[in-house]
Amino acid sequence: MTTPSVELKNVSLIFGDGDPRNENVTAVDNTSLEIPTGQFVAIVGPSGCGKTTILNMLAGLIKPTLGSVKRNGQEVEGPSRDIGYMLARSALSPWRTAKQNVELGLEIRGMTKQERSKKSLELLSQLRLEGFADSYPSMLSQGMQQRVAIARTLAIDPDLWLLDEPFGALDAQTRLTVQSEFISLWESNPGKTVIFVTHDLEEAVLLADRVIVMTARPGKIKSDTTVPIPRPRIVDELKFDPVFTETEHKIWKELRDELV
């Protein structure tokens, strides 16, 4: 049996001191999940259902109160170099150019100037930003900043990509463009596992192989649906595909009650 890339087994995360006399908040409750290597999984659910908490546990930023969190069969004990974590906002360093922002992780790892320059320019080119390598974040649109953030996240060549609402702040047209570029980049990198948190169900179905629906807090997995759409995908055309519409409607019925 192949070892899963990610495994959560009976995981609970409780914020508080555990004393029943004090206020404790259960963010994630007795949750189990396996994700094979190379799969793209989207997690959707109402605010406060533990989506980001799951990413933080996988990233090694927090430990579960109960249960186990494993990466490639090994217990997660802390942050790892083979994980890339991208947040909703680009969080670029304003004093560094786009190219220098992409190079940040490579610089920390001791890569030579020539090597990191080559890598950063390749990624910027893949994301159609080759003409903006020397631009500072303040000179870039929000969509361009997010593309730089994607390049920075992937520059270290992580095996596991964790993304928390990475396109949520973009307008609809820009979001579609960045989604297309992102999925093309991922599909050209086989073997990379993606866990993608979003509030946008349409986005989840457009991009993912599986969509996990979480219940309202305390968060549990309510449903786990495979998206029966082949790859490679052209996301701006999928919205008109009846399979896409049917799958989105099926998952919406699971999600709807939790939002209420």
Query: How many helices?
Result: 9
Mean pLDDT: 92
CATH class of the largest domain: Alpha Beta
CATH superfamily of the largest domain: P-loop containing nucleotide triphosphate hydrolases
Going across the biggest sheet, name each strand in turn: 6-7-8-3-9-10
Are there runs of 5+ residues with pLDDT below 50, and where? none
Distance between the termini: 40 Å
| Known CATH architecture of the largest domain | 3-Layer(aba) Sandwich
Rg (C-alpha, Å):
19 Å
Quick one: how many beta strands?
A: 10
The biggest beta sheet is recorded as: 6 strands, mixed
Give the overall shape.
globular
Percent strand equals 15-25%
Helix content: 25-40%
Order of helices and strands: EEEHEEEHHHHEHEHEEHH
Q: What is the CATH fold-level name of the largest domain?
A: Rossmann fold
- Secondary structural class: alpha/beta
Number of domains: 2
